[in-house]
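The instructor's notes for this session suggest beginning with a concrete chain rather than abstract definitions. Hand out the sequence below and ask the class to guess, before any prediction is shown, which regions might be ordered.
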Amino acid sequence: MASDELKGRRTGTEENRRAARFLAGRFEEFGLLELEGAPGYLQPLPFREVAPPEIGLLEVGEAGFRQGEDLLVVQGAPLELHGEGVFAGYGWVDSLAGRDDFEGLDCRGKVVFVLGGSPEGRGLRDLFRAMEKKRRWASERGARALVELYQLPMPWPFFRRYFGRKRLTLGKDSTPQDDSFTHAFVNAPDKGALKLKIKAGAPVHLKHSGTSKKTLSAANVVGWVPGSDSLLREEFILVTAHFDHVGTTALNGGGTPEDSIFNGARDNAIGTVALLNAAYHLAHRPARRSVVFLAVNAEEMGLLGSSYYAEHPLVPLEKTVFNLNTDGAGYTDTTLVAFVGMGRTNADSALLSAARAQGLQPVLNPAPEQNLYERSDNISFSARGVPSVSISPGFREMSKEIMRHYHQVTDEADTLDFQYVTRFCRVFAEAVRRVADQTERPFWSPGDPFEAVGKALYHLP
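After discussion, reveal the predicted structure:
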């Protein structure tokens, strides 16, 4: 998975498709069953690659912002507009709550400026979920463009790295008519002052050369193993790990004169092999519950593969009682295994016992300031009510040692401690088995933020 031949497994490349075929071949070899909608174990993903504008400029009065620096145009046909702007709060509409941030505003032919994210949250997930709605609401009111004032906890350079270069979107996300509407983000050093300029009627000039799109071929890889218990086999454990990485310096920047390939051994070839190992063992000795193994694509592009599966599940989510994910940036201690999401479900005992059975010490919810629970594929399922936990190789914080390899060309397979990787894979396989075998149905802990949506998914009182 981390070989130079696969050139970093970037979604949409032939090397990524080769990796998917390799995984599908292993599923077939192990005897996993296919699911309807994934012939040959491959669930097609309707991706489009979006290239940002080469030129972009936003001026509000004397304040100026340039594409790729403090302005990011993420969608839109070429545009040049001289006119007015209006400020519309979050640009949010909620008829049930009696909220309409556009009420009383004349948006026709204007640039609508809004706060980034939604009133429900300013996290990355909140922002992504809100984008399409906010575009639609602004467009329906006659606006020519929507500009969000960036306010995520994530530093702007990380956000710019994603939207400032070619990226993937799911083809279903917008219609051809939507594609022409301009949507941008601006990182203003003084958001309050910019809001005052807009409200005071400062002239607005917005110009950009337009985003471009092309269709790409990619797939998730999915198979399943029926459970051995005649009753519990109707409940499914979903096991996930992303197999994509970020590609080469030609697509990603960075690198060194000697090495242009981001091999992604730690992120996430270890997790992919852990999933394969679990699939092998469960196929040869099934657990009580049925288990779906999903190697997801495009995690590095914004959790797109897992989001697509969650919206188009091949096993209904109301039958999917738990998601066990594995992802990682690396490890700093070979006596540890990290669990993200502990205390949130009733599966803690099964998970901790799997770690201790291999003589590894569990670390619970490391690096809390990084909000890791919402940064990997498990959140695609948690947000829809499926209880989830993610397991990573051993670390306590996002230290310099972790960052030395994270999304770097140094993340090579020959830098791994294979004895430790083997123990980690055994922990993961045993964790899958123990959760799939536990008598109590997995569910959220009382009071968890996702408990209510879980009860709605499973029709619980």
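Then share the key points. The chain has 13 helices and 20 strands. The chain has two domains: 4-49+215-458, 53-210.
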